[in-house]
What we know:
The structure holds 2 protein chains of 2 kinds.
Chain A: H1 6-29, H2 42-70, H3 73-105, H4 113-133, H5 138-152, H6 155-165, H7 183-225
Chain B: H1 6-55
Amino acid sequence: MQKYPKTLLLLDLATVLLLAVATVLVFAYAPLERTMGAVQKVFYFHVASNWVGMLGFLVAAVAGAVYLVKGTRFWDVLEVAAVEIGLVFSLIGIVTGSIWARPIWNTWWTWDARLVTVTIMVLIYIAYFLLRQGIDDPGRRARYAAVYAIVGFLSVPLTFFSIRLFQSIHPVVITSTKAQLSPRMKTVFMFSLFTYTVLFADLLWHRTRLGQLAAHLETLRQKMLD
Amino acid sequence: MPPDTTSYMIAGYVVIFLGMALYVLSLWLRHRRIAAEIAYLQEEMEDAGGRGALGR
């Protein structure tokens, strides 16, 4: 049985505390937006969720590259963990975006450039798990998945820059010159991004431990069969 | 006066917190299942080792 690291426990506590503070800031400190009303407050965690999604896919691509160089199982486990977390948060981002769009765009969904690219991105990473399930040999599975995670990452900058490259009704909040937010909104936004980054680190650690435990189980099963 | 979009805001945050809670729960459940399976296999291996030693 793995021992529970003290640093992880501290990270858990810091994550819960930061999430609580961020939630209080969203509801009690961030001002009410004049044209959209209360639904605009979804923005803080909606963007942060999408940020974690993209960060997860970036970490997966880097882990995939390191796996291809080193061939160590740990990097494969980390890669799976990062893709899984990225997928969960991207889906949360899509659903919250849809809820936000309903009163503002008067529709739950529209085939806008951002929405199309984010859908493609999510489908690519769902296919990542299908690919893994389709290969029995662990070494070959890890190699193919690593290449897929690297190539699949191309969808991430395409999604991020889609609202700048194509005509889109999705707002561009942060431009190269300034953020289109009031100072209080900006503070809460930056704090939410930081909180979610810590949350990502915490979840990644937990999910990697789970992956290592699953790998240990696989080794034991193999020993029993031999 | 801004429009009343409070219900959408609540729905958004329910999705966010429920989504995160369900994911954490899934991590915990998977961890518990795998740990139990490892403990069972280790016990089986020890038993098999013990029987092997008696057999010799």
